[in-house]
Amino acid sequence: MERQRCYNEEMFEPSQWTTFANLVLQHRNPRAEAIFVHAWGDLHDELITLTGKCYHSSRPRMLILNAHEHYEIGGLGIGYWRSALMERSGIPAGAIRTIPPADHTGAEAEALMEYAKQGKLASIIVISHPVHLVRAMLTQIGAMHKHGLDLTLYPQTLSLVAWDEVVEIRSLASEGTETTRRIARVYGECARIMQYNQKRGSGDESFPIASISEGIEYFKSKGI
Fold first, then answer.
1. Which of 84, 98, 86 is closest to 37 using CA atoms?
2. pTM for the structure as a whole
3. Which of the ends of the chain has fewer CB neighbours closer than 10 A, N or C?
4. Predicted confidence band at 151 (pLDDT cuts at 50, 70, 90)?
């Protein structure tokens, strides 16, 4: 009960959220052993361009993608991404690796940690859509702790986004199509963070996610 109360109090503390968001979204030029890209349907070409630039600037050993055929229902997936990264950014086919097809962020994070464990990786650049990156980083940190790893994770995302643009979201993890502005989707992401942390606070460890305070402490401990 005490654990649940602490989680609830933290989840409604605005300064914690803004502190963590600023840590996640600040500009970095990291070097790492690997790059991992969370699957996302919106702004895929822009994210492909960003991924290519990160690959050439950081010179990782590998670039890891979700092997799902579609990154949203009826949308583009691994085939499009692999071809685009090779043809547009000149990334060698041998450098592109995959985790098993994953339908949601938690499954991606768990699979990445298993891959990192087997490959003995110590540092990974985590790329995702600006709407998604805060939750993605909390999930990656939670999965890292769950798997007993101590990785250095560097978040990267797009710097300019048309937040007021109306987009259609066809998530693999839910039914139907959500039509919304990108800025409105941010509120949905916050709700998911709260929901998953409340489950964790009640003792449900099935979905790997860190609390906001754990996320802040992680960045402080790594000095990034």
1. 98
2. 0.92
3. N
4. very high
